[in-house]
Amino acid sequence: MSSTRIKIGLYASVLMAVFVLASYKLYRRNDNRTPQKDEVLVKAMLQALTQAHYQPEKIDDTFSKRVFDLYLKRLDSSKKFLLQSDVDQLRKYQNDIDNEVLRGTHEFLDVSTQIMDQRVKDVQALYHDILSKPFDFTTDETFETEPDKSTFAANAAAQREEWRKFLKYQTMVRVSELMDEQAKKKDKPLASTSAQPSVATTSEPVRTPAQMEEEARKRVMKYFDAYFKDLQQNDANDRLATYANTIANTYDPHTEYFAPRDKETFDQAMTGRFEGIGASLQEKDGQIKVSDIIPGSASYRQGELKAGDIIIRVAQGAAEPVSVEGLRLDKAVSMIKGKKGTEVRLTVKKPDASTKVISIIRDVVVLEETFAQSATINDNGKKIGYIKLPTFYADFNDNGGRSSAADVKKELEKLKQENVQGVVLDLRFNGGGSLQDAVEMAGLFVDSGPVVQVRGGQGAASILNDRDPRVQYSGPLVLLVNKYSASASEILAAAMQDYKRGVIMGSASTYGKGTVQRIFDLDDAMPAEFNNIKPFGSLKLTTQKFYRINGGSTQFKGVVPDIILPDAYSYLDQGEKESDYPLKWDEITPARYRVWSGAPSIDKLKQASASRVASSASFKQLSDMVQRMVKRKDDTKVSLKLTNYRAEQQQAKVESDKYEAIQKTAPTLSIAPLSADIRALGTDTIKVNRASRFTKPLKKDITLREAVSVLKDQI
């Protein structure tokens, strides 16, 4: 493990030295003009990307168009501000950004900023005027909610009409919410001090439809007042940071620029995210999107917030919700995080276009729930072991600290003591982590040999090997994966598949992140002459790529399971291939390895599984639900007639609740924590309840049940 870290450290040091030398050469000038910070930043970034990125771009017209397209998309992601004439005016720069960068200018950024600032002022007057008059929710008209299906307004009149519909939609949503609130309060009994049960109802006056419409418009006005106030607080540094990050993102989605402020936020997310709601967020196209739910966190335990959800509004307890649409990520995060025990209410848009208000009580992450846990499943006389691995964790600052590979090894030993006849290793929603732990974990199931290949932009690939000939567990094995299994999870799953060591089961493919990133502090690479305009921030860039031992990359395509099952998340556009400018799949020379001598008969197991799934009522209901979700997701127009809208929302709620209903009707698995683990917890009821909570959602897990059946086919 230490040798791997030394190699990486030397690589980064040598690279930084090259970058520093190149920087001196880059900034040697023939005139006496002092370069401005924006010029230095962009040139320094491009120098680093050229020297260090896995796949550096040529600074040419193709590069220019990529930057133009992505920045335009982010400048006005909703297509509510710019007119088509504005876009036409900006388009003359689409092939000149490369030249601007090389000569140290930024006309495109300046002109786009000027135009956008003017349009923001225009629209600010527009929405005040529109919201001053009542809306009629009985007329038949629709609103397109998906910007990708919209076009920029042809003129000011078309823009006003688009905003009228948009504001009517926003108001209608709040009217519907007020109707729901009133319906809940209507029959709520008042507290009674008498011994007899109270039958009284709340005395709060019932609002008329007109009063609700007026109140909803006031809320929308307040919502947009705050939104536009934030828009106008963006300064030149904010715009420069957005522009620099756009340039970085055109290399690949994991290459990013962090302004000094954003780097601090990133560091806190990596090291101090143990208090709050426990969700990793990302800003994409003006939206705050949930990218990951941290195991053991408040969101993880509450269960309703999911990766892929878009956060629209945030409320502190019972306070009025505040919009986070269009906000910078750091500002949105500051509104969402908070002290343990406080409530935050998130209004989220689900991938199927339905909206939901989710109440979460902020808490600290329960570390025990982030570690590997095991259980046993008894099914018709067969005993199966189950291991849940939420992440590939390791304490890089303490050689004696916990590591996922060592913990899984211990869990396997305990399961062997239980005389299990097969093991399920659950990597669903495991976003990765320690590469070395993935390598060591593969070694628990196979003899010594290669596990993964790592290649930089130049030269041959290096092979990471398991050097321990011992096999911790040699029995039947199933690895469960889904679309959110990424990075180290994909490395382990790919190695087991290539060795034919076990059966990979799950959704159509894993996430497809097969790249390695490094973070460089730009200040460290700058000549001393620029000390007066520091800090510059940091650059996270892709420097290496993972390859399977069979030669294929895990990048873009991910890992395709041996047995593909219907999956509740299969309708989501999630994964590396759905991101902007991902690196493509390719292959290199395979490593030399021997297939596992007791390889399972995949074709027979696949055929038997397909037969069971086809006859399963639960899987059929799930497949039908997914098809309906796909249809809903693609139907992005909403009715602006209140009765129709409420009917659509009710139908969406019915559909979103069906997955839970399917699980409830599924046969119950007999799964329980290891008795030895329960005994070890003694009389600590909190820890005992936590151990029991781990297995509760698994009892109705139809995917896990099918994994057990596949293992039983091998016993």
Describe this structure in words.
This protein is of the alpha+beta class. Among the domains are: 130-187 and 206-231, no CATH class; 274-364, PDZ domain (Pdz3 Domain); 370-514 and 553-712, 2-enoyl-CoA Hydratase, Chain A, domain 1 (Alpha-Beta Complex). 43% of the residues lie in helices and 16% in strands. It contains 22 helices and 22 strands. The strands form five sheets. The protein has a seven-stranded mixed β-sheet with strand order 20-17-16-13-12-11-22, with helices on both faces. Strands 4, 5, 6, 7, 8 and 9 form a six-stranded antiparallel β-sheet that branches. Strands 2, 14, 15, 18 and 19 form a five-stranded antiparallel β-sheet that branches. The protein is globular, with a radius of gyration of 28 Å.
